[in-house]
Each structure stands twice: as C-alpha cells, then as structure tokens.
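Help!! Second protein's tokens look totally different from the first
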Amino acid sequence: MKLEDQARAFLEANPGLRVTALCPRENLTDLQDPWGIPLQRWAAEDHSERCTEYLALNRKSFPNLPLPGWVLSDVYLLTGGIVMLTQGTHILSAWVGLPFKPGVRLGVSLFSQVAGWGAWTKSFGAAAWGVHTVRGVVQWNARAIRTHLRLGPLRIVGRIPGEHELGGFVYETALEPEIWASAMQRTLGIPADTWIAAEDSAALQRVIARCEAGERWWVVGVEAGRWGLVPGKWSTG
C-alpha cells in the first residue's frame, strides 16, 4: 500500500486525530500538506498554552534530559517548528526536525503518548517539510531504534560530535517511497549479514570506525538485544 493510502487509513482509524504544526507564524507557510492531507497550523505566538503543554510532555518523556525553555524557543521553534498528532487541543505525539542541509532534516526529539504512533508522527513531519533524508542520533540500546527503522534502514554515519549525555551514534535514513512504505507496513524484510549484541560496545565501535573510514553499513533490524547489520548496499532479497 502506498504511503499516502496508509497515512489516510491511519487517520481514518483514529477519528478526530489531526496532523498539526506548531511554529512561529512566519514559518507556517514553509510546511506543506503531507500527502495532500490537510495540515492544521498553529502559530506559536498565539498558542502559548500549547507550547507549555509540549514542554511538559517532552520533559515527562525524557526525565534524564529535561528540555530547557530557551531551547524550545530558540532552537525547536525559531529554526522551524514541531509537527504533532493532536486530538482537539491536546498533543499526543510530536517530532522536531531541524534544518540541516537542503532536503535533509535533523531529528532531535520524538515522543508519543500512544504506542506505535511515533513512526507516523516522524513520517508526517518529514512529509510536511518535504525532505528526502532524515538524520539523527540514537543509542545502541534504545527502544526508539524500532521506531526509526519504520522509515527504512539506518545508515551508520559515525560518532556523535561533542559530548552527548546518552552516547550512541549518528544515523541517516534515505526516504525512498517504496522502501518507506514497506517499512511502515513492517513488510520490508531485509536479511541481516551480521548480528552484534547491543552490549558489545567494542564490536559496535569497530563498525562505526569502519564507517568513518569510508565503508557503508546499515542497521536493518533489531531483535533480542542484537543489531542486524548489512555492509555495502542492502537489498530486500
């Protein structure tokens, strides 16, 4: 099933659910209706209560990394905005993708109060910004890896620059429509060439080093605390 058909079916299965952008007023016109689905647009200047709600939900979702109010204002909102799934005036999930390069967004925050909705929130966000690639940071033992894989295989880029409190690595996903659609339906099925335990830090760091040296490795699956990796270019068969 095509992505646009899946997206409409998802919303139809959840009456009253809306795809919503919370942005500074001048940024609202930068977003498009994802797959032709009407995007509800909230100007942050006129919806301070929604900004407060977002801040509280983000802090609840990431208690070890409480989001400062100034980061919400200066970074999350002023550089673009937040794409959310909402019901009435309530925020149920949200994704923040910051501008990185033309056609590329850097995902810095994703949370969902409803299991399984994170991947759709991120997908609607990527479609609303009209990007072909998303980049981000993920930890080897994070449950979020399954959510990110719903958009397609993750290419390992390298180490995280600076000092990240939780560690992990930088990844990138090319949003190829057919692969993306299959991944959202959980029918992609790319076989892993190598399995590495999430706690085997030395082996994982060796893979990162090889990627930084020019090799291309992809994360294609996670099961029982192991990462399924494929070197070179993956294939579905």
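Here's the second one for comparison:
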Amino acid sequence: MNSKPIFKRFWFWMLILLAAIIAVTLVFVLRGDGPSGDPAVVPGDVSYTLNEPAAFRELTITATDFQESEGEAPFLIPDAGNVFLGVRFEVENTSDTNQAIDQHSLFESVRVNGAAVQFSLQAALYFQADDESLDTVLEPGQRTTGWFAVETLADWDVLDLRLRNNWSGLQNATFVFGDEAALAEFETAPYVPELPPADTDPIENGPEVNDEPPVEDNDPPAENDGPVDPTEPENDNEPE
C-alpha cells in the first residue's frame, strides 16, 4: 500500500496556512496595530485640559490658555448676567498632507454644565488677536493658534468641548475646563443632538380647524319655498 508522506498532502498545507493566518492576526491584536501599521485607537472617553497635548493621526491640538471675561464696552460685552469664556488652541498638522480646519469643524459639541451652547463671534472677537485664526489650511508641520469662545451664564461650573471623530479617531476626546471640584465630578456623556421641541398643539395660535367631513343634506326641498301667510288656515285634509 503506497502512502504519501504527510507533508505532501494537500490538507496538511492548508492547515499550515490557516495556522499562519491566525498567528499573524494575534500579533496585530496584541501589539495594538491596525492593518495599515498605524497605532490602533482604543474606543473610550479621554479628557484633556490646559497644556495637555491631544495627539492624533493628523493633528495635535493643545489648549494653551483659558480665560473668563465680562468683555469690553461698548460693543464686545455679554448680556446682563453672562460672561465670555475663551479657550486658546494651538493646532499642529502632523500628517504629510494639507489639512483644512476651522473653528466650527473641530468640535462635535460644546457644553456648559451639560447644556449645549453655541460659538459666539462677539466673544471670539474680544479674545482673538489680529494674527490668530483657527480658520486656515495647514501644510505638513505647520501650526496655527486661535480662540474658541462662547457666552454663558456667570454661574457656570464646567465647559467641555468634544472633538469630532474625524480628527480624534475612535476616541471621544474632550477638552474640559472649570474649578477642581466641578472637574472631579465631570463625566463625559454621549453626545445627543438637541432637537427642536415637538409641536404638541399645532393650532394653538391659529384658527380652529374642523377635521370632520361635512354632512350632506339629502332631504328633498319643500314644495312651497315662499313666505307663509299667517292668516291662511292650514289644510291638513288632502282632496279626495
């Protein structure tokens, strides 16, 4: 009985190939490398504050200054009871291609005490120097600085700015500012877009609308449509 050596059998080499694929996959997983060789980004919440560089694949973003101000009269002042909050960011292009950035595309959400707030141009003009801007195209290795500013109530506790995932990869990277007690209690919450309130009474301020279909009158018209003479006696007996 002729028998081929085991190393000449087809199924033997298939097993070797399968084992090699499994081994290579385990190496990538244990090293934390993706298929492209870039460091893998672990999903999760990462927070940064002043002078803590947030290094990502294409950009390194650092908050270099944080200020609270009541503005400057007569034009650059907040509403009564409000203050300006400004964060000065330094953004460096660490990739090998040009990166177009602007202050509106950097952040997915901006919140004060957990409530969404909007970028304030008036506040940004107060903080911003003439040679600073976050709206630019960065060449490889180039840096820029600029202020992101909001207007909020004077009794604020925590300001957090969550970066968009296209900059931070799979991380929920958030810059957080406030007093130590408030920061100790801060927790990065999932971003939920704020939707306009549902219109529960669509005709509250308008005319009343009757949704019932009109009732048709199918009764035949009366034989005498003219005016009735009250002096004429009624004749209930029909002629024979």
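Reply: Different proteins will give different token patterns, so don't panic. The first strand starts at residue 44 and ends at 48.
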